[in-house]
């Protein structure tokens, strides 16, 4: 019995150690295909979710931001199709509520009073704006799955992330990279923010 107890403690310690060593990928993307009916029109769309780095002055990643990017399929002129960039509030909240409560192609199952409806989960959003604009939901540092990346043996320089001006600077640089990678420079761009996200948008 004593050996079994010691073995259990050893395995628990090993599990905790392994859990603490887990890391999210710094730069990755997963792509899936879906369909939805919005405003009475059915169409297919592509969903991309992943992480993209924020780099420091030396070109080293100092954060990895998680995002979800929706594009409507079979668009003939992508250059003229708008791109909506969406931020949530908080300031410690990710983009989940803009995503699953307002503009995304799927929303939570809730009643007219805002209470969850069983079976719990999501349903099509007939009022999504994906019919007229592509959407990227951005999670600022340390919200959602976004994380800062401390240098080896050093603390994260919090002044680069957690403040209005800091948010504006690194998020603008992140968006430049995102727009370049996804070839959206010709697209009209709109920015939407809820609560504190509106402060970021103004900047």
Task: Describe it.
By secondary structure, the protein is an alpha+beta fold. The chain has one domain: Rossmann fold (3-Layer(aba) Sandwich), CATH 3.40.50. Helix content is 26%, strand content 30%. The chain has 4 helices and 9 strands, in the order H-E-E-E-E-H-E-E-E-E-H-E-H. Strands 1, 2, 3, 4, 7, 8 and 9 form a 7-stranded mixed sheet that branches. A two-stranded antiparallel sheet has the order 5-6. A hairpin with a 2-residue loop joins strand 1 and strand 2 (41-55). It is globular. Mean pLDDT is 85; it is low at 4-12.
Can I get a quick summary?
This protein is of the alpha+beta class and 203 residues long. The chain has helices at residues 2-20, 96-103, 164-181, 196-202; strands at residues 28-38, 41-55, 61-72, 83-87, 106-108, 122-124, 134-138, 147-148, 189-193.
End-to-end distance: 63 Å
User: What count of domains describes the coordinates?
Assistant: 1
The CATH architecture classification is: 3-Layer(aba) Sandwich
Number of helices: 4
Secondary-structure class: alpha+beta
For the largest beta-sheet, the strand count, sense and barrel status come to: 7 strands, mixed
CATH fold name: Rossmann fold
SSE succession: HEEEEHEEEEHEH
What is the CATH C-level name?
Answer: Alpha Beta
Low-pLDDT segments, ≥5 res: 4-12
Q: How much of the sequence is in beta strands?
A: 25-35%
The coarse overall form would be globular
Count the E strands. Answer: 9
Helix content: 25-40%
Structural Rg? 20 Å
CATH superfamily, by name, is Alpha/Beta hydrolase fold, catalytic domain
User: On the 0-100 scale, what is the average pLDDT?
Assistant: 85
